[in-house]
Amino acid sequence: MAADEPLVLGIETSCDETGVGIVRGTTLLADAVASSVDTHARFGGVVPEIASRAHLEAMVPTIERALKEAGVSARDLDGIAVTSGPGLAGALLVGVSAAKAYAYALGKPLYGVNHLASHICVDQLEHGPLPEPTMALLVSGGHSSLLLAPDITADVRPLGATIDDAAGEAFDKIARVLDLGFPGGPVIDRLAREGDPKAIAFPRGLTGPRDAPYDFSFSGLKTSVARWIEAKRAAGEEVPVRDVAASFQEAVVDVLTRKAVRACKDEGVDHLMIGGGVAANSRLRALAQERCERAGIRLRVPRPKLCTDNGAMVAALGAEMVARNRLPSDLELSADSSLPVTEPHVPGTAHTHAHDHDHVHEISKDNLYS
Ligand code: KG4
Ligand code: ZN
């Protein structure tokens, strides 16, 4: 770890985890996460208002915990990065407001960064600098995309995406049908280990010869699994939960890995990065490894804790922005719940500065913690 690499704090509040990470260049120094997932569990999904309130309560203590864990002072930071989108608007706003307040108070540059690009960039903390271009399969609760990133700070190109449900959403919905609670991914992953992935032949969406090669569809699979379970219940038969979990999971990861490997081959990229909460899935990791090896592709997947939402990923992308001299964001930075994946960060207009006091005074009244 070189002392001249940028020291960056990253804040993530796009969904239900309040994440604060600190990195120096590509080295992870702290990864503090406070989750409100248990509070949402009884509603069967994330309740935006509850998430925002939990972020507000957790924000300052989590920042303090991260600084302590990293053993650095806020004054030594070279920048503050924050997820400015995509995500839940109210939840994002808490992180963005906090980041602005810290950036202004400390006189540090602010970087509003993209949540999806952060899920990719985090792998630098585990496996070193990303190759350029990087092929990334991004699979989370809100997104499933294949992305080609020649430069993760400035050039991210979508090759395909889900046309209906995201992969994580499908896990969460099937878990609900099986009464397994929320979030569904981890519990299906666990149960599937004891089930037979070949027990039930569930459909593989969008894999026909005339289908878009890099798009995904999981809603047909979801309906098919739900109907299968309903039929069993209607017949008074016991539902073989482990076999259903394993067969459903196999259908999802079969399509994800098949299309990702194909994209690498078509684009002549010899490595694949998998990121997002669903990348924590043990079967996805194993099958991707198997298929990549067979195709001569190097697989990069961060450890599970760095796959689900966290602040370290935001800090990782922020540090890359600093290292590449990308323009910081303005203090007018706002949360953008539908920030496109093609915008890795939200650059400011060069004429505003963190020390433009009158200007900032206005922002602090209107936006900070309001
Ligand atoms: O990236 P993430 O933490 O939040 C979003 O940005 O959406 O992803 C959360 C999603 C949830 O749908 C959750 O069920 C899924 O990731 N997930 C998993 C696993 N762990 C989390 N899905 C499958 N297997 C897992 N082990
Ligand atoms: Zn995420």
CATH fold-level topology of the largest domain: Nucleotidyltransferase, domain 5
How many structural domains can be distinguished in the coordinates?
A: 2
User: Structural class of the secondary structure composition?
Assistant: alpha/beta
Spell out the helices and strands N to C.
Answer: EEEHHEHEHHEEEHHHHEHEHHH
Task: Sketch the major β-sheet.
Answer: 5 strands, mixed
Task: Kindly provide the radius of gyration, computed on alpha-carbon positions and rounded to a whole number of angstroms.
Answer: 21 Å
Molecular shape: globular
Architecture of the largest domain, according to CATH? 2-Layer Sandwich
Summarize the amount of helix as a percent range: 40-55%
User: Strand order within the widest sheet?
Assistant: 3-2-1-4-5
**Share of β-strand residues:** 15-25%
Outline the fold blueprint:
Blueprint (H helix, E strand, L loop, with lengths): L6 E6 L4 E8 L2 E9 L1 H5 L6 H23 L8 E7 L3 H18 L3 E5 H7 L1 H5 L6 E6 L4 E8 L3 E7 L5 H11 L6 H9 L26 H16 L6 H27 L3 E5 L6 H14 L2 E3 L3 H4 L4 H12 L33 H10 L4
Parallel strand pairs: 1-4, 4-5, 6-9, 9-10
Antiparallel strand pairs: 1-2, 2-3, 6-7, 7-8
The site of 5'-O-[(R)-(carboxyoxy)(hydroxy)phosphoryl]adenosine has 19 residues, from helix 6 and helix 7.
